[in-house]
Amino acid sequence: MTEPIKGIYGIDPCTLIDDDGQAYIYWSGRGMQGARLKPNMLQLDSEPVALGNFPDGMKEGPFVFKRNGKYYFTFPWVPKEGETENLSYAMGDSPLGPFEYKGLIMDQSPTKCWTNHHSIVEYKGEWYLFYHHNDYSPQFDKNRSVRIDKICFNEDGTIQKVTPTLRGVGITNATDEIQLDRYSELSKMGAAINYVDTTDYFAGWKTVLNARNAYVQYNDVDFGTTGLTSVSAQVLNGKGKLLVKVDDKIIARIAVKEAGLITVPVKDIPQGVHNLSVVSADKGKVEVDWIQFK
């Protein structure tokens, strides 16, 4: 392709190939628009259609997908000047609308990351949301990295709002170094994720627990069948007591007196895939890099 597609004046193109093989293209820039594509996917096969019935404010980056006979028109949206992008969506019965606005997929980022463009993909029966973030450039949000989280639907086809996590997706082996800072859930009080080295963001992150009952949860850990007898925690700083839990059951207690690798025995680890959490048992401040089972 050496020339732009004639008839398109905009940015952020997205294509959809429907079940009958017909391809469509969508874009933003002068409002949201869409059109059919010819089989070569290099020429429009219809006049552009203005797609409306969306909230006021800046909208861009459309992504369209089909699920159970419904078409989902999803887009980043800035409701008011001075805010950043959330992810929103509308639904319709035709690839070119009309679409009915349904609500938010994801709230604006608390770090004010700009932008939050995205895609939504089905893989092996599960749906996933890919989106932008500025983890590696917190002072400059244009150097974006990619995050991924699962996305779920209600019985009527509407989308359940996604709460961003650092966990991502997939199963982690218990014998790997489990980076707790890539959490599935973090307590609202007494827990934080900080950079290991603020002069080198690529050195990674650490989990900081500094209040009783503060916790970090890391889902989908595979403990295998048998043989695990200990858990090690790489502690970067602090003093305190930690509880290691599988689901809601305590399997180990770690007394932290100084930085270093601390290994303690474990008991009654269940087989298979479970959720792991580390909980502060006192008011001490402990900084953990990773934990690992052996």
Query: What is the count of distinct domains?
Result: 2
Low-confidence spans: none
Q: Please tell me how large the radius of gyration is.
A: 23 Å
CATH level-3 fold name of the largest domain = Tachylectin-2, Chain A
Name the CATH superfamily classification of the largest domain. Answer: Glycosyl hydrolase domain, family 43
| Class computed from helices, strands and strand pairing | mainly beta
Largest sheet: 6 strands, mixed
Proper CATH architecture of the largest domain: 5 Propeller
What percent strand? Answer: over 45%
Order of helices and strands: EEEEEEEEEEEEEEEEEEEEEEE
CATH class of the largest domain: Mainly Beta
Global shape: elongated
- How far apart the termini lie comes to 54 Å
Q: Would you tell me the overall average pLDDT? A: 95
Percent helix range: under 10%
Question: What does this protein look like?
Answer:
- The structure is a single chain.
- This protein is mostly beta strands and 294 residues long.
- The protein has two domains: 11-150, Glycosyl hydrolase domain, family 43 (Tachylectin-2, Chain A, 5 Propeller), CATH 2.115.10; 172-293, Galactose-binding domain-like (Jelly Rolls, Sandwich), CATH 2.60.120.260.
- Helix content is 0%, strand content 48%.
- The chain is built from no helices and 23 strands.
- The chain has strands at 11-17, 23-28, 32-36, 49-51, 58-59, 63-67, 70-78, 86-92, 99-106, 118-123, 126-133, 145-150, 172-173, 185-186, 191-195, 205-209, 215-222, 230-238, 240-246, 249-256, 260-265, 273-280, 286-293.
- Strands 13, 14, 17, 19, 20 and 22 form a six-stranded mixed β-sheet that branches.
- A hairpin with a 7-residue loop joins strand 7 (70-78) and strand 8 (86-92).
- The chain is elongated, with a radius of gyration of 23 Å.
- The mean pLDDT is 95.
